[in-house]
Amino acid sequence: MGDPRSTYLDHGATTPLRAEVADAMAEARSEPLGNPTGSHRPAQRARRLLEEARDEVAAHLGRDPSEIVFTSGGTESANLAVFGTLGLAVRERRPAGVVSSAAEHPAVRESCRAAAREPWVAWREIPVDASGLVDPDELGGLVDAQTVLVAVMLANNETGVVQPLDRVVAAVRARSDTARVFTDAVQAASFLCLAEHAAGADLVALSAHKVGGPVGVGVLAVRPPTELAAQHYGGGQERDRRSGTQDVVGAVGLATALRLAAADRVEAVRRVAALRDRLAEGLGRSVEGLHRTVPPGVDVLPGHLHLCLRGIEREELLVALSEHGVCASGGSSCASGALEVSYVLEAMGVPADLARGAVRFTLGTETTGADVDRALAVVPEVVASLRRTA
Ligand code: PLP
User: Fold this and answer.
1) Residue whose CA is closest, atom 13 of ligand 1?
2) Any long-range contacts for 20-27 (C-beta under 8 Å, 24+ apart)?
3) Could you tell me the pTM of the whole model?
4) Does the Cβ of 163 fall within 6 Å of ligand 1?
5) Does any ligand 1 atom lie closer than 6 A to the CB of residue 187?
6) Whose CA is nearest to atom 9 of ligand 1?
7) CA proximity to 346, closest of 164, 202, 158
8) What percentage of the chain carries pLDDT values higher than 70?
9) d(Cα 78, Cα 76) in Å, to the nearest integer?
């Protein structure tokens, strides 16, 4: 990204802004834009662009435009889903339960933890197995009359593992008419058809910068009869669900990015998965002590390759790779302590000594064969040199 010599394999952290998205945003800015709530021409123009973006995002998700709440990104969408659904119970001081998977992104997990500081809220985490998957039947067993929200992400940010969301939704519905299902689809949006994969969820979170759009804009889709307690008070924008002047240009960027992702999805999935598999096979042959974190046969996003390298410290590896022009990450882009072992890997039962050498390569739609060649040349050399100096 930017540096032509760098091989960017960290799309799970953020994706480059697609050129067509930048063009659409520039076009939106090319004439005066007012506040969408106003009455004059620039305001009307802003309102029109915002509502067109809303229609497009809604169509992409297979939902009604009235369900779409624009936010500042995935983190805010997750907070709004958790606090918004639990908020009504908390205000009325009635017991409320939230169940989430042990592999949720911190945006969800920390929201649940914070919500559970209220004495009325009980939070339970459902474990994941060695593949990173929840067991829908086990999850259903945790749902009771007080459960307000069940949060299971569509695809994990670290491993790329895709959860059996349909079965999760069915298990929740079998136990409760009132519990809502929230899915964090932030990582999944580039490669999965959300109208299909997230169809059963009551609430869906998206973030533009993970799908070739700009940083700082996202969506929470909220399907009736789900009720949300607003977390921002103000002018009552977004049907009173999220006050604050909307980022019209950002919304245009998000809608364009989703359109582009949908336009070549089938081809992109095939191409990116083939590149990822070539990288995995090549590294498997050339790097000793390499452990593929997700067992074969598990449904994983096409761009994700999560590895654990025995005897390697993650941060040292990432810095050395970067010095050789390869950008990867240790897993979560939000990990607070660089040396902490990922709680997702811990939940999957990955031993701590292996998890310390965790590295995540995430390929994107613009990744090329040359990027993979470069990584195949650099990674084995860097790992061998780190082992020599250890
Ligand atoms: N959820 C998942 C699965 C993510 O990967 C991320 C970003 O890393 C987020 C939520 C937060 O999104 P944002 O960076 O837009 O706040």
Assistant:
1) 74
2) 20/256, 20/260, 21/212, 21/213, 21/214, 21/253, 21/256, 21/257, 21/260, 22/253, 24/252, 24/253, 24/256, 25/214, 25/249, 25/250, 25/252, 25/253, 25/256
3) 0.96
4) no
5) yes
6) 74
7) 158
8) 97
9) 5
Atom of ligand 1 nearest to the CA of 75: 16
101 contacts 151 by C-beta, under 8 angstroms: yes
382, 316, 278, 322: which is closest to 7 by C-alpha? 322
Centroid of ligand 1 to alpha carbon of 74 (angstroms)? 5
Query: Given this model, what pLDDT does residue 336 score?
Result: 47
What is the model's pLDDT at position 3? 55
What is the residue type of 36? P
> 305 by DSSP, 3-state: which?
strand
The ligand 1 atom nearest the CA atom of 76: 16
Domain with CATH 3.40.640.10 in the chain: 19-259
Tens of pLDDT, residue by residue, the chain (390 residues) = 445 568 999 999 999 999 999 999 999 999 999 999 999 999 999 999 999 999 999 999 999 999 999 999 999 999 999 999 999 888 888 999 999 999 999 999 999 999 999 999 999 999 999 999 999 999 999 999 999 999 999 999 999 999 999 999 999 999 999 999 999 999 999 999 999 999 999 999 999 999 999 999 999 999 999 999 999 999 999 999 999 999 999 999 999 999 999 999 999 999 999 999 999 999 999 999 999 999 999 999 999 999 999 999 999 999 999 999 999 998 755 444 455 789 999 999 999 999 999 999 999 999 999 999 999 999 999 999 999 987
250 pocket-lining for ligand 1 (C-beta < 6 Å): no
Token pair, residue 318, equals: 């990432």
Give the CATH number of domain 19-259; options: 3.10.180.10, 3.40.640.10, 3.40.50.1240, 3.40.50.2300. 3.40.640.10
Residue 112 annotated in active site:
no
CATH 3.90.1150.10 residue ranges for the chain = 7-16+265-389
Task: Give the architecture (CATH level 2) of 7-16+265-389.
Answer: Alpha-Beta Complex (3.90)
Q: The tokens of 324 are what?
A: 């050789």
| Dihedrals phi, psi of 266, to nearest 5 degrees | -60, -45
